[in-house]
Fold each of these.
Amino acid sequence: MAALVLVLVPLALSGCAGAQNSLNPHSHAATDIANLFWWMMAIAFGGLALVTGIMVAAWFRRKQPDEEHAGERRGNIVVLALGIVMPICVVCALFVVSDTLIINVTQAPAASSTAMTIHAIGHDWWWEFRYPGTRADTADELHIPVDTRINLVATTADVIHSFWVPPLNRKIDTIPGQRNRILLYSNELGTFRGQCAEFCGLQHAHMAMLVIVQTKAAFRAWLRNEAADARKPAGGPALAGENVVLASCSSCHTIRGTSASGYVGPDLTHVGSRTWLAGLSFPNRRAWLARWITDNQSIKPGNQMPEFHFAAGRLRDVVAYLESLK
Ligand code: CUA
């Protein structure tokens, strides 16, 4: 028994740490959600302590079988008060608090209360982010300015996904044919990890995202670059790689400023500036990128990209071109 507890407790607690921790909030909405959780936890443990205490007291004050009145039922008023009236009151109070206070803070924001809108589009299995009013279109890494209320519109290109960044707010499902909105806001600079929270197929676990909260000036600079067309490589392997990419990849990927305009996979216009790829499956480094192109079905089985077995020199050119797309 002791061994079982020693094994199970660390396993259970290991879920309480890490980058995707809803109990480590970084926004007003997430703070309210975490506080509600702790209050419910405290009240539940209070109830457990009370019931256990009464059971123990009853055990010590029990009558012996030969005593007068043994086996008679008494004290129904205690059972009524603690067993029925009090739980109803507690549950109603928690409902009112969570419904009137927490839902109000975390629900879809009034259109006039937000400074900008961002579209999050779920795909099997990656996230697309668009910034209406600009041509910026990126994947898996959502940049936002600090201290800015953002109207996040969540939709899907295929099945139901769920947009969830635990340190910033509750989750919101992406449902075919429907636009769901949620407030996205952070009062701190930093990078927060989020995750698709609705089972959506084989690679559901590899559908993560980063929210990168920047100063307003840094965000404006990022958005300006992201909205611009891809820069033509000056020469060398990157220029040679461009021809290969446009011939092989353009029916599935868009690279703005070139003939590539596919919409099956992510927009690659500035893929070189991202830190992770494929729903945060691996870091955006040369060796990983090369492996992804030739061997992606073993990294992320079931993803929609075919494997390309380029000769070594060509593969090097392709990777050089993708890396040049900053
Ligand atoms: Cu998308 Cu799970």
Amino acid sequence: MLGTPKLQKPQSRGKIATKPRSGNRNSGRNILVLHGPNLNLLGNREPEIYGSTTLPEIDRRLARLATAAGAGIECFQSNHEGELIDRIQGARARQVSFIIINAASYTHSSIGLRDALAASGVPFIEVHLSNVFARETFRQHSCLADLAVGVICGLGAQSYELALGFALSQP
Ligand code: DQA
């Protein structure tokens, strides 16, 4: 018998915003994690490609790592390009020191996201769960990668954790 499908609602409203644990000195680092379209379906969506870890599980792990390091973190998913752009535009005012972004399919098409990241001036890492270079040709082009500090892909949910480790290691 098939198990109950694990469907996550789009999380454009739901977010994890975590301040450093009391007792931990705030390192002054604030990390914004952005997830693009269809990533709310993780756990259920093509698990042979994207793995079985759900988006809330990924966000919880990231929040744990960030708060343990004394950093603030906010995770946000949207299926809407404009909502992601709004978050990027607001990043400076919210004193975000680093952005970790899996723009999902917008990676391959969105000049709007590229322009927003360029305008923000906030350093960012592009991440992907799957190895986009081992997939269809259209996934091998990124509108963001040349502006990124780095790109991490193909390591499943760990792609995010490695990106966060780097962001937290920055002065
Ligand atoms: C993805 C890869 C993209 O090509 C795809 O559109 C996604 C997910 C990844 O994390 O592997 O939605 O960004």
